[in-house]
UniProtKB/TrEMBL annotation:
InterPro entries: Papain-like_cys_pep_sf, Pept_cys_AS, Peptidase_C1A, Peptidase_C1A_C, Prot_inhib_I29. Residues 208-271 form the Peptidase C1A papain C-terminal domain. Belongs to the peptidase C1 family. This is Cysteine peptidase 2. The chain crosses the membrane at residues 12-35. Keywords: Disulfide bond, Glycoprotein, Membrane, Transmembrane, Transmembrane helix, Zymogen. It comes from Babesia bovis. One of its GO terms (biological process) is proteolysis. GO terms for molecular function: cysteine-type peptidase activity. Residues 98-147 form the Cathepsin propeptide inhibitor domain. Coiled coil: none annotated.
Length: 271
């Protein structure tokens, strides 16, 4: 009788221990799953790559940051205005490095890269803010000036030019009268619908909302670089468009005006 009681006691003890072990494992697994769910963490990719999830409304889920990229950003932190612990900052720096690669930018020092990144970040924020402006009638995007101080660029390119007689270059908006000959082109330029038909003959047509692209009268966009020669590009573009309307599609030289039109100031402006 005693032997049987011992056997039963041992079985009971093993059952209790086994149940305790199972319960402990279940609780531990539940805690791990809970912590994982709350933190949103995932397995760390191999190679020391840092993982960043979705944040800050940027929809940049599953961003992987290489150790080299993170080290570059960290190396600039001591110069100020950079927060390496902010995921949004890291994503902006990744965008910056992509733009630098796209436009083949080379920075000779940490300080130069730091300045370029701060300019990019400022320009990036301006573009994003504009995208949320529902009243805007135009679009903005980053171009080869992505890492430049826009105020400095404007000071270089947008000169105020003193002209001999400003009345000679004043522009007064005018209307024109629709005729049988010009009806088709005005209908195209002002994007008249089929139901609206052509502008009635004898009616006034203003030019505030015309789009010469609709008439295939605009030549490709050109880049004036860091030369304040918008005056030359505007003049040449206008002549090219006039020629294109006459079925002569050519590219004329802005450089000839910049170098040879002595009444202006070359890259320092003109009219």
């Amino acid at each position: 009788g005693r032997s049987r009681r011992c056997c039963v006691g041992k079985k009971t003890m093993w059952i209790v221990l086994l149940g305790t072990a199972i319960l402990t494992a279940a609780i531990t697994s539940g805690i791990i799953l809970l912590v994982t769910s709350l933190s949103g963490s995932k397995a760390k990719p191999s190679g020391g790559v840092k993982h960043i999830g979705k944040f800050d409304g940027l929809n940049r889920a599953d961003c992987h940051v290489s150790p080299e990229t993170f080290a570059e950003l960290s190396s600039m932190a001591h110069l100020g205005e950079i927060n390496v612990s902010d995921p949004a900052e890291i994503v902006k720096y990744m965008d910056f490095t992509r733009m630098a690669k796209k436009f083949d930018r080379k920075y000779d020092s940490v300080a130069e890269r730091h300045s370029a990144f701060l300019n990019f970040r400022r320009n990036h924020d301006i573009v994003k803010s504009h995208e949320h402006n529902k009243a805007a009638t135009y679009t903005k995007d980053l171009n080869h000036f992505f890492d430049k101080d826009i105020k400095a660029v404007a000071a270089k390119l947008l000169h105020k030019i003193d002209v001999y007689n400003e009345s000679n270059i004043s522009i007064t908006p005018t209307d024109t009268t629709a005729t049988k000959e010009n009806q088709p082109i005005y209908a195209t330029l002002k994007n008249y619908s089929v139901s609206a038909g052509y502008p009635p003959i004898g009616s006034k047509v203003n030019f505030e909302d015309i789009d010469w692209r609709r008439a295939d009268a605009v030549t490709p966009v050109k880049d004036q670089g860091m030369c304040g020669s918008c005056w030359a590009f505007a003049a040449v573009g206008s002549v090219e468009s006039l020629l294109k309307r006459q079925k002569t599609d050519v590219r004329l030289s802005e450089q000839e005006l910049v170098s040879c039109q002595l009444g202006n100031q070359g890259c320092n402006g003109g009219y």
